[in-house]
Amino acid sequence: MRTLNERLANVRAEHVARPPQRPSDEDRLNRLARWFDARMDVTQNGTVLVVERSVAASEATVQALAQLSPAAYFDTETTGLSTGAGTVIFLAGVARVSAGRIRVCQYLLPDYPYEPALLRALTADLATASRIVTYNGRTFDLPMLAARLTFHGLFHDQATLPRTHDDLLPDARRLFRRPLGGARLADVEIGVLGVRRSSDCPGSEVPARYFGYLRGGSPDILADVLDHNFQDVVSLVLLEAELWRLRAGGWRNAMVLDPRGMALELLRAGAVDDALELVETAQAVTSDPAEATALRRVASRLLIALGQVDRAEQLWTLGTRRASVDAAGAWIEVARIRERHRGDLAGAMAAAAAASRVLDIAFALGRGGSIQEVGRTRIAVERRLRRLRRWVAAAERRAIREARHRRVA
Amino acid sequence: MLTAPPSNADEAIASLLADPSLARLITAHREFEPRGPRHAPWPPGLDSRIVEALRGRRIEAPYTHQAAAYSAANGRRNVVVVTPTASGKTLCYNLPVLDAVAKNGAARALYLFPTKALAADQLVELRALADAADLGLKTHTYDGDTPANVRSVVRSAGQVVITNPDMLHAAILPHHTKWFKLLENLEYVVIDELHTYRGLFGSHVANVIRRLRRICRHYGADPVFICASATIANPRELAERILDAPVELIDDNGAPSGRKHVVIVNPPVVNAQLGIRSSSLLTGQGIAERLIRNGVQTIAFARSRTAVEILTTYLREALPAPPGHPSPIQGYRGGYLPNERRTIEAGLRDGRIRGVVATNALELGIDIGGLDAAISVGYPGTIASTWQQMGRSGRRASTSLSVMVASSAPIDQFLATHPEYFFDSSPEHGRINPDNLHLLLDHLKASAFELPVPAAERFGLDETPMLLDVLEEDGFLRRAGDDRYYWSQENFPASAFSLRSAAQENVIIIDTTGDRPRVIGEVDLFAAPMLVHEQAIYMHAARQFHVDRLDWDERKAYVRAVDVDYYTDADLGVTLKVLDAFEELHGTDGALRAHGEVMVAWHATLFKKIKLHTHENIGWGPITLPEQQMHTTGAWIVPPKAIVERFGRETLDGALIGWARVARSAAALLLMCDARDIGVLAQAQAPHTLRPTLFLYDAVPGGVGLAERLHELHPDLIGACARMVRDCPCMDGCPSCVGPVAEVGVDGKATCGELLAALA
């Protein structure tokens, strides 16, 4: 084992003997630019390397996005996942749709000293769009960009960034995560967008590639990273178009879609009838009882929102015929609707009592399902009964008080 | 039974001191006269709302030291304030900080405390004052307990951020872009409890401050540092070393104090032949019991966690609570969970708790107000911490008492017999070595992550460029075309090391007695093999727990409540390997003294079961746990051949053990440091020298320079050892010099004396 002092002594000796041999910055910069056929913009902060590429956009994509305000689709590659001050953005892709093509500008950092120039050029580019679209950018790409701008004191540039920011991750999660079993951009590409990446550089390898290049590696090791980033922003464009199509009625014939998530979106957009149609269809075709119950719950909420409390109640009473744990659950929902939305305490009590009875029978017949399931339902039933009893008692007290009041008056 | 209302503490203390049975044990008694306050006028320009708020608290004028601190800080001079406990030290920094914020809402300050508990206390105090002055101050603690939603608010809007060096190191500095509002407008940095930043921890903190200053420069800020410290010999030097900047010292205390008695008690000799004294624990317990019984609110300090628990148990037995009431006696130590500690602190303040037994966790300035009496059972290790424990007792008006009960350890006995040393000599030096290479490299990495390092920049050492090249060679940094070194790894350097090596990871203690497992506390990794090895009796809140299983990999100890009449004590085996000698001075006849780098490994091998009260050994068992290692600096001494060859192997072994024992005490006295900062090991046949050798080493990884200093002080060290052996009145060795005969052998003491004479 070499001790630290020995090592220092060695370094000391080498330090004198060997002046650092490094290829000149300019050579490396030119080589990198040539390799990727990049544009070299000379700015007052230094040289910026921009790789421009484009790909044809389908008619459908162009039409869909024409309905939305023009956006910059933005994704970064960084030297690490921590957003600490030592992590930098070494590649930023910005995609736009124009004249039937998806045009991508990739800002590539030749070395750390070029960072301020890159950041200023990138921010100026983003600033011309009316909004920024990202995937998980709310927690990663944009805070990262903000951190880098702060680091270099570029507060004015930061202020020019578009105010509107649409992060597609929450939408994708809501609509695709359950059917796809995940909502990484790669999952969505394969399952929804039909994108096949021929070769790809796994995200976890990205920082090591860049460090490899900086330590004197060939620019070629960055080629996959550039492709990866290019595909990311192109997919963002396709995804936003697809989301628009789904919302504009495409949900009726979508192959992959979470009906519950979509119904919530429709509800939020005020299209309650559409939402109901979606869930009722989904409920009819699903073979998974848990999913069916979940869908029924969404439908029930939708009906109540539409003021159709009767229909909402019917949705549940249909499911109470057979003595089962599910039936007990349905009775609880009936009790809830009667209590909350009809103000019918007596009816709610009756439904809750029915839930309790059905549960007893189901248990006795051994149709209970797992012990946990029965236990959970039992707790829910008892809780509602207790609550209702309290409400009924309170209502009675109130009635007595009011009667007395009237007498006094 | 403690049902009578507290009587007059003055009388109780007077009657105790007059009692002949105690008086014959007192080896020194000093009485400090009451001192009146000295005030200064309110500094001109101080915001009037703050003055009004303080007047509202019946503070009509600041004490002289508070006014001096304000004017120094306000004049942009770094300052260190050194005054005793409860002298209004916090106002020394709260005054300039609140004034700055009152005048400029954008101004920011950063407070550093060594522990979360102290930070929480300061938050309460600062808020109360700021609210009274109606400043609308935005302040919060920022540590592991801060909820995530509060964190972002603290980052952007907190005017005074209260945190600890560990958070500054691992959370704030590496993410400084999120903190730029604080850093850009940073006017003051407050470092309280400066004296705790010594040794390895202090060396780390000095490097964290270097990193903080680099980033402040980056954002164009140049904060003034206000430090506060307990009494140490070199507060100004320590502050200047930590800040790497000139610092003004303020030590003229203007606060009043009541009459105070300070006594040193030496327990009686029960066996003159063996030099055995009665236990300091039992003597201390007797004094505490009597004081508490007479209504004197008392705090007793014990040196180890085990001693705290034993003393708590004894006192609770002697002073039972009325049925249905919680005990008025509480234990307080590091392993307790935060809410348990808070309850105890509150109980002390409102008087429900009449007596508390603590480790030095309470020694730090937790604001529990002054108590009537403080008892240190055993010398706490340094003069500074003794005075700090003694400072826990002290009222503005009435009489207070501080007692130090000497144990049979050599230093304790030295102080009991030479009390003038304690009263008259200056307290310890706070020593740090921020340029310890191991540390410096780690912090240089962290700093380069935070901000690229220009090739010409100096970080601590003039050799910074060489260190940068070492780090580049190892692939951590890369020098770019602009001649700056950039962090060039994916990971996050500050997360790779902790400022407190021992506290890096804790072993969690899980009580499996009840129907569901419950976490009752934790111990640090270093202490775990000693305290929670399998079959150990772990004491918590005066209850005994048997350790059923220790899952070393998961850092979990599973314990079960038991009621047994013994406790356990583990033996630690230490080995040492010399890695590199920096200097070897050969004397005549094979004598050698040297210093260099060493690797120390320790290993808990077996434990003893010791019966409560009688302290007899009633059994033992093995401990099977992995070895722990430390790379540090050491000094070693080989005696001449001729003297060694005169003795048989067994005699020599005993003499070496005895020499090691006195050498550690002598070294602690010479260097004015805690004996626990120095490790010592005697080997009859050391692998490196192939001769009988005594090793003294820094007990922290990397070392802080103690060993090298001992190497320089060789003649003084040998002289002090010789005096300690010669002047001890025992015949063949006792726990107060070379150790008991049972350990060093019949000729141990005499042989040790001869060895030392030959080395002199």
What does this structure look like?
Chain A has 17 helices and seven strands. With 409 residues, chain A is of the alpha/beta class. Chain A is elongated and about 95 Å long. Chain A has a seven-stranded mixed beta sheet, with helices on both faces. Chain A has helices at 4-17, 25-35, 59-66, 115-127, 141-151, 155-159, 169-180, 185-193, 206-214, 223-247, 259-268, 272-285, 289-305, 309-317, 325-342, 345-364, 371-408; strands spanning 39-43, 46-56, 71-78, 89-98, 101-108, 131-134, 164-167. Chain B is 36% helix and 24% strand. Chain B contains 26 helices and 30 strands. Residues 1-7 of chain B have low confidence and may be disordered. In chain B, the strands form six sheets. In chain B, strands 1-9-16-15-12-14-13 form a seven-stranded mixed beta sheet, with helices on both faces. Chain B has a seven-stranded parallel beta sheet with strand order 4-5-3-6-7-2-8, sandwiched between helices. In chain B, strands 25, 26, 27, 28, 29 and 30 form a six-stranded antiparallel beta sheet that branches. Chain B is α/β, with parallel strands linked by helices. The chains are: A alpha/beta (409), B alpha/beta (760). Chain A binds chain B through residues 1, 3-8, 11-12, 14-15, 20, 22, 24-25, 79-86, 111-113, 146-148, 150-151, 207-208, 211, 214-215, and chain B through 174-178, 180, 437-438, 441, 448-452, 463, 465-467, 469-470, 473, 475, 478-482, 484, 486-494, 579-580, 582, 597.
Produce a short descriptive summary.
The complex is a heterodimer of chains A (409) and B (760). With 409 residues, chain A is an alpha/beta fold.
Q: What are the defining features of this structure?
A:
heterodimer; A: 409 residues; alpha/beta; seven-stranded mixed sheet; 17 helices; elongated; B: 760 residues; seven-stranded parallel sheet; 26 helices; 36% helix; globular; disordered N terminus
